[in-house]
């Protein structure tokens, strides 16, 4: 074990440690919501702008450029669909074509400049939209849609063309959907459905079809935004907009790549503040998926672990499949806030109930044991030899008469029960028909969530098609797995929303005194030596060992006497990354002769390897503690990220680490620790005392402050090991590596 301390802090008070370090906890809490125009300490926005998309989805006037009514032409079918859509939304449609006098009997303008009125939306049925952008801007067109492909999805040349298109759009002042998009925004949405709606965002239009089909099951959809290559309008814009719209119960997304990680988090923050669930399939969990996504939309997918953590931070529910997206979004859109988080499994088969209860418990749902009084009540209608503690097994026969409804009402009346899950493994008329009718009736008279899993592979039964799907109060599923995942997402999201405090409200707006000290230590484009990296940590109040940098054997002996034996000696230089691998660390030196010999050996190795040194560090040795790692690295999408995990060699062997995207608060820092598989080591195992978790959390927050303030100036920071001492004694950074950009 390496390192030493400047002295041991004996207080267990987090505040006392903060004062002792001379800095405030990170990030600073400002106590007011972020507003438009607010910037964080690195100059990035703290508030999501909400684009005014009303006139995109409900325009008063539409221009179709390249309109056609010639049979057999692709543009003819598109024009026909746009005509029908314009009629539904009450918009005036103006065809534009240089050689046609009319299209489908409507007078045709030869160019954008000749349109009879200013239009809200222009649909571009041309192979190259770029030449039209300037004309559209001059005509004060608000929105445009470009279907053309051949841009960033095709490679470098296409990406360059898309960049030119994006620059032209920005200059023109219009907002563009696409390129490489489709007609999904102009689909026919059913208007005979009520209840909260799902708003849909997809980068690949076909992937939204299963969600769009939910309308056939009685679930309302309000919007569909097919974002395509996102040269301008992106997923984040639509999340921000949909989060503000009344009547939207959930936002469902199919995301191949994020255009800008920060924009997405700001949009997710807006949805979280308003309690609107965002459910997302995000492609790129594997290298294969990431490559495929990049070739399709030309987006950066980002490191998947960072994407996953960032989504969790802001309450975005990530699912893996389209059927999960469908089921989870539908439940979250329609379910009321839960009265309790207890789940009861109720079935007509003991085997089915036990199986589903096992899966639910494994997924983290809480299955409370019903009280003895409640069980006694249920046994009035259910034979005494059957289990009614949870899961509840009715044996089948009580379902067929008046007892069935009594049982359901008694379960839902329990104050610990917030969700009832009833798996119907297969149709078994008349019992299954009577069961679902009772469940539907009971759901109409309770504010608790009733879920039914209709397990029949057929799906044509009247009990399913008419009774279950005809109910707006029962959540119906076809698989147990999707039901359990959706229920968990529902309960987790409600808990998240209740306790949500926007990280952007707490982000520091102005640099700390530490930042000014750190700036003087940065060396652009260089890696800092261990000694210099530790000075950077000191600037932010992070404890480092008592140590001295020496340049002679005699000075090393004097330093060891001051530090106190036993000591550790390490070569220090800007080009050394892994000292142990090169033999540049000597541990447990207990005498002056050992120190002299170690100095000569370290400098000889460095000379032989051609490694320049700024000296040799002489440090006091510390052994009692848990080795952890805390660091900063840059993600392509989200910028600086903070990682914490088990340190030493364990970080490479076990890869047991958690990551967050700044800004975040103390609660998120503690959540990071709870995600570690080796979390028990911090609690104290095999007779070891509990580690000072508060001190570790404080270091994580201070490192986050560094990430926020230094931003792009620091490419990488690695504190490994950070020795977390027994409770009340703090944490010490025994080694550090820092790379400047």
UniProtKB/TrEMBL annotation:
Pfam families: ATP-grasp_5, CoA_binding_2, Succ_CoA_lig. Residues 534-572 form the ATP-grasp domain. The keyword Nucleotide-binding applies. One of its GO terms (molecular function) is ligase activity. SMART domains: CoA_binding. The keyword Nucleotide-binding applies. Keywords: ATP-binding, Ligase, Nucleotide-binding. This is Acetate--CoA ligase family protein. It comes from Streptomyces caeni.
